[in-house]
């Protein structure tokens, strides 16, 4: 056990999964790096360095560079999975789902159903998602809310290094196709992560904080911010449950509903824009199934209905801040019936 | 080219099975017995069979929206397929896929595919698995003359070359993508050359002649199986029906359909060749015809009698294991 | 004024818009038909016949067939719009957004924002959407819920021929990019449609029925079913508002909230699956902004979290039925606090 | 090739402006003054300028993630661009786009583009508009050696041929897509031939030599402008920096960067040519250098002093008119 960044925790999970199971391989743009060049092949490990060392350890059949052809990358993963491999494909930025959505949504995600339950497609697609890098409109989207819409896919959003490792090992072991979103703002965040292999089951939320007054459900990058907001409010006598669903599909509805039954107040926090997003999804769940417990309006804290701006100041105003979460919690306490 | 008698009989039987399956499906669609969008393969049988006769169960194919022929040629259960078209829960895909999604993993059929050029990238993945496992398998994808203009098809071809995988791209040029002629939709004058420009050899075949396809496909598959990377087959062919059932076919030249049925029928051609070579007698072929008609008849009766799906089945088979609950 | 099917109403709108404005043109697969063949060019008009006659009237520069290259089709529309044209592109089935999403979402929809408000992209993309044809998993999705997520796009979902014509004329005239979803199950449905040109503004819901007990919000193909359910319940003394938002982005929040304030009960109906969909989106809106008026849980009536099945029986069980809507209304009346 | 003195001066000035803009941007990124992902064009200047010198305001270009050079060559305001990189609300895109989305509709710049091969389809649209309006305009898209493997790029090329539009595809081969060499990522041996296979002529240029690019681009643009459909330019070039700022460049051969700066510098090459031909004196070029340095200095001072965006601006410029309200 030692402190590891999320990047290192994911990297470790990949190393361990590949060592443990011959059918696991990694494929994507520059996941090895330097192919075809006079430089050292395998010296890159993805633009975020997440696949570092895999080429050197496992060689060219298990760590495979590709051209810039995201549809073909996802298709290759899907096809290899259909015949029994366990590929882990890397799509550099979640935004690039735009150029490979069919292969994810209409192919990989629907095989099993369309084929009458007679196929298995244990592919994992990893993406770097979300904002925080001044990367502007085409390199900052979270996209997991959109993917959550599609039946047949599982959607994972780790919020810390520990979960990232356990969830990725589960994803690779899982027999269904899994989309694994890595909030890129968290790659450098570290926490204690066991050295050995372990898995975290899908559909089981983490209770990050426990409290009585408000249920806060937060996804990915927003979990830390929500925790900071909640911790700051303790002094004011407000105590909150903080739930990190960890997977948006499946969603741990029971955990959320149980908490809302107890607190009577719900705030859902995500960094994506509001429309048809996860904040609405969870809010609507409570408005149906925990309605009678609710004491106050269900609040969504999210980005506005705008693309992600480039300028650091604009992006800071775009992504929900600790202050915004805090203010919302306080307003909610004031507003209850 | 001379083939063992067994092989010849089998090839003819496969082509005839596809033909009669399709003609009967056509009739049942007109009857209102088969729902949805169905694209018939009639006229192109020699392509599917000429290719698949080189494959065994562990090799894979991935097909298109016009998938019945490829699936039958690769060994899909005809009765299970007919039941699927009828939407029965006993169908090959429990009635969940229908015509555009017939699949059978055990037979190496990675599915018909409703998305034009959805298949080639997936096939490259199956080929990559074969390369990694060094098991000598090949992965074949079928594409039409329209499908080759889709970005995913190009990406798949380039990736297959880059990764040097045993992927075989079979392009069936039936001259039309829906209502548009290849001479419009493919901008260049030479599709074979454009394809070869990606860096693999493409073998040309007469798609109305089993032997021609068999030979070209043999070369392509051998090339791929031997570890030389991908290869292609380019076959000119014609479909005897419209794009979908009900297509007014205003794109046809006068007499085109008659001409096709008369001069580009792979079954007729096969018989002519056999008659000339004497390798098979017309009686032997007639016997197969009769057996095929019986099988097709049987498949339709079975499909009509088969169990219908129940509402609970709607939510089954989405996942292998979905521990969380869905919202609705 | 005469009865027209939705197909004919859309076709008429296209004819009129093209006659009125030289910068309008139509592009897509077989929108003319038979190009390159020995048959009669222009004799098709799209697989659903919606663009019939445009080639014959306006010629090859205004009704343009393409190869099967959806990304290039959308891109071509986006590029032509950026330089001042008003293209109307047809993407045959909404499901095919999978192969052209980047051009829609990351390009067309974000130009204006990324370019600091200094560009204009008045392109319209038309799609046949939704179920009802036993067309299975890859030809039956509505997809508009997913597109509603993306800032920069407007999303239109007509539920009848009259609206379709007025909304399409508005879409073509509109200076922002518009996605126009035509529920294919409605192409043959007819109603009175004026012969002359008229527009329906975006963001203004239609009140299809007026009542006191329950607010029903329904989209596209579901509007007729909701109306049938409501009409049947009149005899039982239950009266409902039926709101058809007509555009999901912008959404007429005011109309929905006003109605919920009055009725205190809300049911949202759509044919898409539940997760991160429009039913959740509208339910969450009410759970926040009309919370204090709510007397009962907010209900979502939608497809299950499954791909669309092929078999007619399965599809019938998949798409929300009149009965299901009716039952939900009755249950809701029984459940109120 | 002999060009009027005016043209020569202008071409040099443009290349030098790009060079110094980039080198200064590099310094300011290292300083922490410029946020986000920035890709520098240093070393490839002759490509942008050699192409854009054939274009006027009403012709369009669409660029890539490595867009500064193309935008400057096409006439974008340098100060506005520097302000944009600094994220000021006075920037060309009000600080909303940044390096990867610099655009100027009035100058016919349809934007840098963060999506690899996002541009070519859009450029075909601009070209289609030109064809419909018969206004003699051309639409140029820039692609890298990596970008050409993306499906959208292939689709755009085929569609341009089918519609016979004045689209010009400029492929800049700087040998790398991020960390991967073209010899790996492009499966075939001859990218020019693969591209020509789509059905249009591709003119080859030495991307370190303005005159070579100018000549090849001239032929391609003339071909397109004359109504003969699309054409291509294929230029070999080298980037002097990493893919992005901070790239360790482990893919480089030993001495590669020094060699590039020494032997593939378009500014040096231009000077050598001028010295040999005597068309321009070194003093004239030195004078331009000084002016450019002043302009770049000015642009940075202006950018540092420029207004910063305010939070309200986040939700502006999404739509021209959005009558409905957003949910948050
Ligand atoms: C991505 C996508 N675009 C369009 C369609 C609609 N479509 C189905 S088949 C077809 C024509 C295919 O032509 P071709 O590849 O030549 O195959 P053929 O039908 O001739 O067998 C089209 C356009 C589709 N299914 N998927
Ligand atoms: C669809 C997509 N995939 C991947 C990337 C990440 N990416 C940005 S630039 C680049 C390499 C592009 O190489 P090339 O086209 O040769 O252009 P160069 O960088 O050499 O100018 C990659 C992979 C992207 N921006 N978009
Ligand atoms: Mg065809
Ligand atoms: Mg490059």
Main attributes of the structure:
heterotetramer; A: 337 residues; alpha/beta; Rossmann fold; 14 strands; 19% strand; globular; B: 328 residues; five-stranded parallel sheet; two-stranded antiparallel ribbon; 45% helix; binds thiamine diphosphate; binds magnesium ion
Task: Explain the overall architecture.
The complex is a heterotetramer, with two copies of chain A (337 residues) and two copies of chain B (328 residues). Chain A folds into two domains: 2-193, Thiamin diphosphate (ThDP)-binding fold, Pyr/PP domains (Rossmann fold, 3-Layer(aba) Sandwich); 206-335, 3-Layer(aba) Sandwich (Rossmann fold), CATH 3.40.50.920. Helix content of chain A is 36%, strand content 19%. Chain A has helices at residues 6-20, 54-58, 70-82, 101-108, 111-114, 144-148, 161-173, 222-234, 253-263, 278-289, 312-318, 322-335; strands spanning 2-5, 24-28, 63-65, 86-93, 124-129, 154-156, 178-183, 190-193, 206-209, 214-218, 240-244, 247-249, 266-269, 299-301. In chain A, the strands form three sheets. Chain A has a seven-stranded mixed beta sheet with strand order 3-2-4-5-7-6-12, sandwiched between helices. Chain A is globular, with a radius of gyration of 20 Å. The mean pLDDT of chain A is 98. Chain B is an alpha/beta fold and 328 residues long. Chain B has one domain: 3-Layer(aba) Sandwich (Rossmann fold). Chain B has a five-stranded parallel beta sheet with strand order 1-2-3-7-6, with helices on both faces. The model of chain B has no long low-confidence stretch (mean pLDDT 97). Helices cover 45% and strands 9% of the residues of chain B. In chain B, strand 2 (139-144), helix 6 and strand 3 form a beta-alpha-beta unit. Chains in contact: A-B, A-C, A-D, B-C, B-D, C-D. The interface between A and C is large, with 60 and 60 residues. Bound molecules: thiamine diphosphate (TPP) (2 copies) and magnesium ion (MG) (2 copies). One thiamine diphosphate (TPP) sits between chains B (64-66, 114-116, 144-147, 174, 176-178, 243) and C (29, 68, 70, 92, 96, 99). One thiamine diphosphate sits between chains B (64-66, 114-116, 144-147, 174, 176-178, 243) and C (29, 68, 70, 92, 96, 99).
């Amino acid at each position: 056990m030692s402190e590891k960044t999320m990047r290192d925790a994911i990297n470790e999970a990949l190393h361990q999964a590949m060592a443990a199971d011959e059918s696991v391989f990694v494929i994507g743009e520059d996941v090895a790096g330097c192919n075809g060049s006079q430089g050292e092949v395998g010296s890159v490990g993805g633009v975020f360095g997440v696949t570092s060392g895999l080429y050197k350890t496992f060689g060219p059949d298990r760590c495979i560079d590709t051209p810039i052809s995201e549809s073909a990358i996802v298709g290759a993963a899907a096809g290899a999975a259909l015949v029994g491999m366990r590929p882990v494909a890397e799509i550099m930025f979640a935004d690039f789902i735009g150029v490979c959505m069919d292969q994810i949504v209409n192919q990989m995600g629907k095989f099993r159903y369309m084929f009458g339950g007679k196929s298995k497609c244990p592919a994992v697609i990893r993406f770097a998602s979300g904002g925080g890098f001044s990367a502007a409109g085409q390199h900052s989207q979270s996209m997991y809310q959109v993917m959550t819409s599609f039946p047949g896919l599982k959607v994972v959003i780790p919020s810390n290094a520990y979960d990232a490792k356990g969830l990725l090992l589960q994803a690779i072991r899982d027999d269904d196709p899994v989309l694994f979103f890595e909030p890129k703002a968290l790659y450098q965040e570290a926490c204690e992560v066991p050295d050995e292999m372990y898995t975290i089951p899908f559909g089981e939320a983490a209770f990050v904080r426990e409290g009585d007054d408000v249920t806060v459900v937060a996804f990915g990058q927003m979990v830390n911010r929500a925790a900071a907001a909640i911790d700051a409010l303790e002094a004011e006598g407000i105590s909150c449950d903080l739930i990190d669903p960890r997977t948006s599909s499946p969603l741990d509805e029971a955990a959320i509903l149980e908490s809302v039954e107890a607190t009577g107040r719900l705030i859902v926090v995500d960094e994506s824009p509001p429309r048809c997003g996860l904040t609405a999804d969870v809010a609507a769940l409570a408005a149906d199934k925990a309605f009678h417990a609710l004491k106050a309006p269900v609040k969504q804290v999210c980005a506005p209905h705008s693309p992600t701006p480039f300028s650091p100041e604009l992006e800071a105003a775009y992504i929900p801040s600790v202050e915004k979460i805090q203010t919302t919690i306080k307003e909610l306490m004031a507003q209850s019936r | 080219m001379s083939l063992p008698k067994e092989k010849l009989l089998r090839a003819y039987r496969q082509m005839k099975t596809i033909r009669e399956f399709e003609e009967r499906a056509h009739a049942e669609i007109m009857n209102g017995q088969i729902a949805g969008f169905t694209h018939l393969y009639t006229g192109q049988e020699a392509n599917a069979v000429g290719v698949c006769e080189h494959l065994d169960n562990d090799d894979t194919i991935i097909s298109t929206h016009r998938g019945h022929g490829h699936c039958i040629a690769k060994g899909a259960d005809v009765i299970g397929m007919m039941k699927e078209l009828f939407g029965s829960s006993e169908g090959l895909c429990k009635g969940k896929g229908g015509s555009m999604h017939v699949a059978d993993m055990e037979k190496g059929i990675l599915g018909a595919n409703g998305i034009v050029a959805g298949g080639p990238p997936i096939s490259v993945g199956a080929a990559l698995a074969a390369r990694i496992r060094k098991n000598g398998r090949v992965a074949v994808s079928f594409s039409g003359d329209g499908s080759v203009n889709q970005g995913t098809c190009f990406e798949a071809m380039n990736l297959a070359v880059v990764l040097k995988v045993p992927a075989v791209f079979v392009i069936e040029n039936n001259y039309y993508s829906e209502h548009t002629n290849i001479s419009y939709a493919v901008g260049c004058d030479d599709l074979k050359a454009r394809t070869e420009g990606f860096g693999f050899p493409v073998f040309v075949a007469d798609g109305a002649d089993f032997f021609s396809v068999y030979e070209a496909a043999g070369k392509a598959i051998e090339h791929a199986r031997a570890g030389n990377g991908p290869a292609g087959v380019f076959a000119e062919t014609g479909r005897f029906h419209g794009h979908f059932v009900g297509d007014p076919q205003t794109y046809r030249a006068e007499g085109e359909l008659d001409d096709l049925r008369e001069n580009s029928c792979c079954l007729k051609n096969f018989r002519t060749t056999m008659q000339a070579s004497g390798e098979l007698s017309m009686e032997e072929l007639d016997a197969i015809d009769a057996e095929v008609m019986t099988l097709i008849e049987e498949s339709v009766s079975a499909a009509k009698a088969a169990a219908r799906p129940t509402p609970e089945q709607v939510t089954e088979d989405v996942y292998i294991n979905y521990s969380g609950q869905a919202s609705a």
